[in-house]
Automatic annotation (TrEMBL):
Gene Ontology CC terms, in alphabetical order: membrane
Protein name as annotated: Phosphate ABC transporter ATP-binding protein, PhoT family
Secreted keyword on record: no
PANTHER family: ABC TRANSPORTER I FAMILY MEMBER 17
SMART domains for this protein: AAA (SM00382)
Organism (species): Vreelandella arcis
GO molecular-function terms, A-Z: ATP binding; ATP hydrolysis activity; phosphate transmembrane transporter activity
InterPro entries listed in its UniProt record: AAA+_ATPase (IPR003593), ABC_transporter-like_ATP-bd (IPR003439), ABC_transporter-like_CS (IPR017871), P-loop_NTPase (IPR027417), PstB-like (IPR005670)
ABC transporter domain: residues covered: 25-266
BP terms from Gene Ontology: phosphate ion transmembrane transport
Amino acid sequence: MLASRHVDQTTQAPATHFPADQCCLNIEQFNLAYAGKLALQALTLQVPRHRVTAFIGPSGCGKSTLLRAINRLHDLNGSVTHSGSISLEGHNIHDPGINVTELRRRVGMVFQTPNPFPMSIYDNVAFGLRLQKRLAKRQRDDIIEWALTSAALWDEVKDDLHRSAWRLSGGQQQRLVIARTLAVQPDVLLLDEPASALDPISTLKIEELIRNLKSQLTLVLVTHNMQQAARVSDYTAFLQEGELVEYGPTDHVFTNPRLQRTENYITGRMA
Ligand SMILES: Nc1ncnc2c1ncn2[C@@H]1O[C@H](COP(=O)(O)OP(=O)(O)OP(=O)(O)O)[C@@H](O)[C@H]1O
């Protein structure tokens, strides 16, 4: 629990700014509406490269909507309109020349419920690789070993890669899905409550994995679990009703929030 103290309620938290060589995602004045109803409003925030950034906030505040916007998952929803911009490594993801399939390779996404395909462990990880390019079996095997090792699963599955993925535990399945995403070498990994369906031990493994992966890529995590955000993220963005309320280094946001609204949320005084 936070110590009681004065919190400045008058100032609007500015976005945290990063120099171009440290900025992976630049979200500027981004609005998104479902059938005309705004779910994200004038959102401006920069996500730093090779860091873990957590999006926190009450249910319905727009966390998943923002995550999905980053790899254009809303494209298939005809009721969605948006304005403003999201840039990945300096390129607007909505530019007409953008190849959306390539964008989704570069920006991988892992969902709440593990969703391995109904095939073997090997074929799950090979799936994206096979779509991407023709590789010699030896090269493909090397990438599969690398991806499973990066996802901290190799040692548990290496002796039986041709077993059905569905025979793995829930936590192993989620790490397999992360391996499948890593195999196509994304720049960004979006994680939408990746551990909320898992037991505490599996959750700790996923958290350790997230911390380790930031040496390889940029991670964005949506979580309802405040302890998890505090344990794994470097930066935390607090959203409420589609707006960015406060954004900063995680230790600042959790131990010295600028705004009363943020303090109320992280101390559990606001659902
Ligand atoms: N496909 C959709 N069609 C219409 N409205 C939607 C759709 N998806 C989300 N919304 C609305 O957009 C707002 C933001 O929802 P979103 O799921 O992004 O919030 P969230 O913060 O991720 O919530 P939770 O923590 O409960 O998952 C909510 O009002 C929600 O009802």
